[in-house]
Write a structure and sequence with these properties.
The complex is a heterodimer of chains A (185) and B (397). By secondary structure, chain A is an all-alpha fold. Chain A has 2 domains: 85 residues, Orthogonal Bundle (Rna Polymerase Sigma Factor, Chain: A); 75 residues, Winged helix-like DNA-binding domain superfamily/Winged helix DNA-binding domain (Arc Repressor Mutant, subunit A, Orthogonal Bundle). Chain A is built from 8 helices and no strands. In chain A, helix 2 packs antiparallel against helix 3, helix 2 packs across helix 5 and helix 6 packs across helix 8. Chain A is globular, with a radius of gyration of 19 Å. About 3% of the residues of chain A have low confidence. In chain B, helix 5 packs across helix 6. Chain B has 2 domains: 108 residues, no CATH class; 209 residues, Porin (Beta Barrel), CATH 2.40.160.20. The longest helix of chain B is centred in the first third of the chain and has 46 residues. In chain B, the strands form 2 sheets. In chain B, strands 3-6-7-8-9-11-12-13 form an 8-stranded antiparallel beta barrel. A two-stranded antiparallel sheet of chain B has the order 1-2. By secondary structure, chain B is of the alpha+beta class. The chains are: A mainly alpha (185), B alpha+beta (397). At the A-B interface, helix 2, helix 3, helix 4, helix 5 and helix 7 of A face helix 1, helix 2, strand 5 and strand 8 of B.
């Protein structure tokens, strides 16, 4: 398999076909990431399209820092483009009316849920919840950094994360119960 | 780590390489938006700076040429007239080929009436001082000073060199293009400048965990009162030295003191780097300011075309543009408030042309805290050492 370094070298030489190879290599994961942030497949497609235009026009300035660094860079652009899109739609911010939540489920068995279902569940969380969850769990951002990025307080980020985890855990439990019911029938 | 957090780690690992089906027409849409040319190479900050300095120098030379061409011709005509007026009565070509000052010329006779001899008591070492001081001396004596005399005074040497003056040639006595005596008659100067601080500032620091989060981690429960730093997460900042380009106009208040103002464009850039495990996230901030300086300059020394001066000033900078770029995504950020600064400097200027000279002016500048949350070289290194380069053109009398 072509390494990221080889792919970048081909792009640096002006090989336009290498652009297509870069796209094919990361597009699937990019769509999954965009879906987690946007919720809607159409919105996710728009984000991936915008993100890859940025990637392919700026890849000449990318500094290679080892295998995996290109993927990280591409996904960061996808995430940032998604955040911009959410910001434009004013979908970010504090969930003012926090719904009544049950106590947090203790370690929901995520390994029993297919990845596609988990991905969709995250995308279906309220925008504020899923954005904080995505940034904290998948991007590894601190609440301070999330607060700066979204224009909210650190404590708000922390509480939104707690709510997001509670809601997601409940949906995982409901999904697994439904699966059990379907199997017994 | 708290037990309940384990499932989010599993969640992250489970989706780490997950891929969704890609819409069939997505590549066609992307390809249609791509430029035809190959991607541009990485931009280098130093290259930008060199280009900026080169462009400003080219601009300086171009503007200087524009001003100097017609003015030089006019000044040469004036000098030619002056030469005729001053030289004819004062210099005699001797038969042996040497020149001497005509002791009986009208100019010197008029001066002798003041009892000062042929040099009018003009002890100033430069043209500006000499002109003013000699006029005052003559007027105090109540004697009439003809216009020709004033012209000749500007060109004569101090009284201590009376005997030497007898052996001077016309070229040695008359003002020539490029001498400071002629230039000092100009009251207004226009200057273009480029400046940069010598160094920016870099910091790196660990990141504290939010105290409210510490309580959620069982293993940290006993350390609630202590600061807890996040592992595998550091933040660093690099504030690059500001670069300025400007246009200044200065007015000579006294022979040694001048006041100046103008407009200065300053660009600052900073990199905010978050390192999460092995990944680096770089946010690049660019801020532009348009400033209005007010400065005073005092000439300390002058030797031929070389002058040494000291200066001080204040400047108000208005932030006109602020943006943050991360991985190709650009967004605007909050503008800085009006920023005031004060400076002291010392400069050396060399006049190589009739209407101007190049100068280098190292100095210190201190930016006052304006209470904003902006972070750039002005805030993180408020006291900075910088060097200004420029070209000054003298216009008008």
């Amino acid at each position: 398999m072509e390494t990221e370094k080889q792919l970048l070298q081909a792009i640096a030489k002006g090989d336009r076909v290498a652009f297509r190879r870069l796209y094919e290599r990361f597009a699937g994961h990019a769509v999954a990431v965009a879906l987690r942030y946007m919720g809607s497949p159409d919105d996710a497609q728009d984000v991936v399209q915008d993100a890859f235009v940025k990637v392919l026009t700026k890849v000449g300035g990318f500094t290679y820092r080892g295998e995996g660094s290109l993927k990280s860079w591409v996904m960061r652009i996808v995430v940032n483009t998604a955040l911009d899109s959410l910001r434009d739609r004013t979908m970010l911010g504090v969930q003012v009316e926090l719904p009544d939540m049950p106590e947090e489920e203790a370690s929901p068995p995520v390994d029993r849920v297919p990845p596609g279902v988990l991905n969709r569940m995250i995308g279906e969380l309220p925008p504020g919840y899923r954005t904080v969850l995505n940034l904290h769990v998948f991007e590894g951002y601190s609440h301070q950094r999330i607060g700066e990025l979204l224009g909210i307080r650190e404590n708000t980020s922390a509480s939104q994360l707690t709510r997001a985890k509670q809601l997601l855990a409940r949906r995982i439990s409901e999904y697994l119960k439904q699966q059990t019911t379907d199997e017994t029938e | 780590m708290k037990q309940n957090d384990d499932w989010t780690i599993k969640l992250r690992d489970r989706l780490a390489d997950y891929e969704e089906p890609v819409p069939a027409d997505l590549w066609t849409a992307i390809e249609g938006q791509l430029p035809v040319a190959a991607p541009a190479p990485a931009r280098r900050v130093w290259l930008w700076r060199v280009a900026a300095v080169a462009a400003s120098l080219l601009l300086l030379v171009g503007v200087a040429q524009l001003f100097m061409q017609p003015a030089t011709e006019t000044m040469n005509e004036c000098l030619a007239e002056d030469a005729q007026m001053v030289a004819k009565p004062r210099v005699i070509n001797r038969a042996d080929g040497t020149d001497e000052i005509d002791e009986n010329s009208e100019v010197n006779r008029a001066n002798r009436a003041d009892g000062i001899d042929g040099n009018n008591g003009n002890n100033g070492t430069d043209g500006i001082d000499g002109e003013n001081e000699s006029n005052e001396t003559n007027e105090a004596d109540g004697s009439y000073v003809p216009q020709e005399n004033l012209l000749s005074q500007e060109t004569q040497e101090p009284a201590s060199s009376v005997s030497d003056s007898k052996n001077r040639t016309v070229e040695g006595v008359l003002p020539t293009a490029g001498t400071h005596a002629a230039k000092d008659a100009h009251r207004l100067q226009i200057g273009l400048l480029a400046s940069s601080a010598v160094e920016g500032r870099s910091t790196e620091q660990p990141v504290l965990m939010n105290p409210s989060m510490v309580s959620q981690y069982a293993s940290l429960a006993s350390r609630r009162s202590e600061p807890v730093y996040l592992t595998d997460y550091t933040e660093s900042e690099k504030h690059h030295a500001p670069v300025s380009l400007g246009l200044m106009v200065s007015y000579t208040l006294t022979p040694r003191l001048s006041i100046g103002s103008g407009v200065v464009y300053t660009q600052l850039s900073s990199d905010f780097i978050s390192t999460v495990k092995q990944h680096q996230i770089v946010r690049h901030q660019q801020m532009s300011y348009v400033g209005m300086p007010l400065s005073l300059q005092y000439r300390l020394l002058q030797y031929h075309g070389l002058r040494l001066y000291g200066g001080t000033g204040v400047q108000a900078d208005l932030n006109v543009h602020a943006r943050m770029e991360q991985d190709g995504v650009v967004r605007t950020v909050a503008h800085d408030r009006l920023r005031l600064s004060a400076s002291v400097s010392a400069g050396v200027q060399y006049d190589f042309g009739m209407f101007g000279g190049v100068y280098v002016e190292p100095g210190l500048r201190y930016y006052l805290d304006n209470g904003s949350e902006t972070r750039n070289a002005m805030t993180e290194r408020p006291l900075g050492f910088g060097v200004q380069l420029g070209y000054r053109i003298s216009i008008g009398n």
